[in-house]
Specification:
Layout: E1 2-7, H1 9-18, E2 20-21, E3 26-30, H2 33-39, H3 44-64, E4 74-79, E5 85-86, E6 100-103, E7 107-108, E8 112-117, H4 123-137, H5 141-151, E9 156-158, H6 163-166
Antiparallel strand pairs: 1-3, 1-4, 2-7, 3-6, 4-8, 5-6, 8-9
Helix pairs in contact: 3-4, 4-5
Length: about 170
């Protein structure tokens, strides 16, 4: 199963240094039954793109909680065994938790298929979105518009061997 792990650049630097994502449990996003139902598609590429976007939103939340982190959303795509990525069957299903899975233990970074990151030109919109996230969560439509502005930026694809270049 392909899972998408939301991070920040400092989190990616830590994973690169340690050689693994973790320790567990890790929150990630994947094509789950709830995501399939919410997105209403049978196209696996569209569903994986939706899971990637869910992880990008979670990365934005991590940025909002870490004002020192550079303002770039980071998502690591990793393949794990199906049984290693579990949706919380007892958890309340909310819009923000659709596609969310837990990975119990660490995952070797060598297993990563790719790293997705914002381009430099997204920094201003991502900064504004991270700053507006709290107000958007409280129902402020103008703040939600700002948050949605970050989602207009497509994450770029990088090979795992390109991580050192992302960390500069």
């Amino acid at each position: 199963m392909r899972v998408y792990v939301p991070l920040t650049l400092p989190g990616l630097a830590q994973a690169h240094k340690a050689g693994e994502l973790g320790p567990g449990p890790l929150t990630a996003y994947a094509v789950t039954p709830a995501l399939r139902e919410w997105y209403v598609s049978d196209d696996i590429e569209e569903l994986e793109y939706a899971a990637l976007n869910r992880a990008a939103s979670a990365s934005l939340r991590l940025l909002a909680g870490d004002p020192e982190a550079p303002r770039r959303r980071i998502v690591v795509a990793v393949d794990v065994a199906d049984q290693d990525a579990a949706a919380d069957p007892d958890g309340a299903l909310t819009v923000s938790s659709i596609g969310e899975v837990r990975i119990a233990g660490p995952v070797r970074l060598a297993k990563a298929a790719a790293v997705h990151a914002d381009a430099d030109d997204a920094e201003a919109d991502v900064t504004a979105a991270a700053d507006a996230l709290g107000a958007a969560d409280q129902g402020d439509d103008d703040a939600q518009f700002v948050v949605d502005g970050a989602e207009d930026h497509e994450l770029l694809w990088f090979g795992v061997q390109e991580i050192p270049g992302l960390l500069r």
